[in-house]
């Protein structure tokens, strides 16, 4: 009996420990096409450009990738508590976030865009950000740079912040808000699936997406940077761009 117990404990310690080591856990918020969204054959797998990058990172370290789909504003806390190994979620590198997590080199250049309803003719009078902020109700996703930009434009007016851009798009279509501030590629992805929303042309600063890790995870960060560099060098990165970003609207 004693031998069996010892054997069980031994097995448990071997499998218990090695199991976690076979995987790297990527945190993401799968409501941000074409970077991460639910798709695949059954429509329930997390797919997209960022997943391809995450797979490459795990592979380069000889590990399998496990994906944790969570709210966007839960990603930084999940990194800090060690619940996930890295976050790839179209996350803009900002000084504010750098206080809590470390970022890889930038892997994608982005910018904000404004979306409105196609049939909203009142926008014919809106040509500047000042007009937009003073006259229109803006919406964005909670905890994003889009929300910060919207707040900046809105001045003293309130901004509607919701848990996902999918919900914000619904809010626009249902006429609860007048305009959305959202990253350019997801904006194009939502336009490709909703022919009743269009872009309100305006200029915004460039933003850069990075892979986030827990502060001080130097080894992991170095290999993530190495992987990104290699993907670019071998042409894989360009393939991911074509496959996941340029082809998204055609799906
Ligand atoms: N790039 C934006 C940010 O970092 C939005 C990211 C997202 O909604 N997934 O805040």
Could you write a compact summary of the structure shown?
By secondary structure, this protein is an alpha/beta fold. It is 42% helix and 24% strand.
Q: Kindly state the percentage of residues in helix.
A: 40-55%
The coarse silhouette is globular
In DSSP terms (H or I, runs of 4 or more residues), the helix count works out at: 10
Please give the largest β-sheet: 6 strands, mixed
Ligands: glutamine
The average pLDDT value, as a whole number, equals 93
Q: Would you identify the CATH H-level superfamily of the largest domain?
A: Periplasmic binding protein-like II
Low-confidence parts: 14-19
Task: Give the tally of structural domains.
Answer: 2
In the CATH scheme, the class of the largest domain would be Alpha Beta
Structural class: alpha/beta
N-to-C span: 60 Å
Q: How many beta-strand elements? A: 14
Strand content: 15-25%
């Amino acid at each position: 009996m004693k031998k069996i117990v010892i054997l069980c404990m031994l097995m448990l310690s071997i499998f218990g420990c090695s199991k976690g080591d076979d995987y790297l856990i990527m945190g993401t918020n799968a409501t941000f096409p074409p970077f991460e969204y639910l798709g695949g054959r059954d429509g329930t797998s997390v797919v997209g450009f960022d997943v391809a990058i995450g797979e490459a990172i795990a592979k380069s370290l000889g590990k399998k990738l496990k994906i944790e789909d969570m709210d966007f504003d839960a990603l930084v806390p999940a990194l800090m508590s060690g619940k996930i190994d890295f976050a790839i979620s179209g996350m803009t590198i900002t000084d504010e976030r750098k206080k809590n997590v470390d970022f890889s080199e930038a892997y994608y250049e982005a910018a904000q865009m404004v979306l409105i309803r196609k049939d909203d003719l009142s926008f014919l009078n809106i040509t500047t950000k000042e007009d937009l902020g003073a006259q229109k109700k803006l919406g964005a996703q909670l905890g994003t740079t889009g929300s910060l930009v919207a707040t900046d434009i809105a001045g003293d007016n309130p901004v509607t912040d919701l848990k996902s851009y999918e919900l914000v798009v619904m809010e626009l279509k249902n006429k609860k808000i007048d305009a959305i501030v959202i990253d350019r590629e997801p904006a194009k992805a939502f336009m490709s699936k909703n022919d009743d929303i269009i872009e309100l042309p305006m200029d915004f600063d460039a933003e850069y997406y990075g892979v986030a890790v827990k502060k001080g995870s130097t080894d992991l960060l170095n290999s993530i940077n190495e992987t990104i560099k290699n993907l670019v060098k071998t042409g894989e990165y360009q393939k991911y761009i074509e496959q996941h970003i340029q082809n998204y609207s055609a799906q």
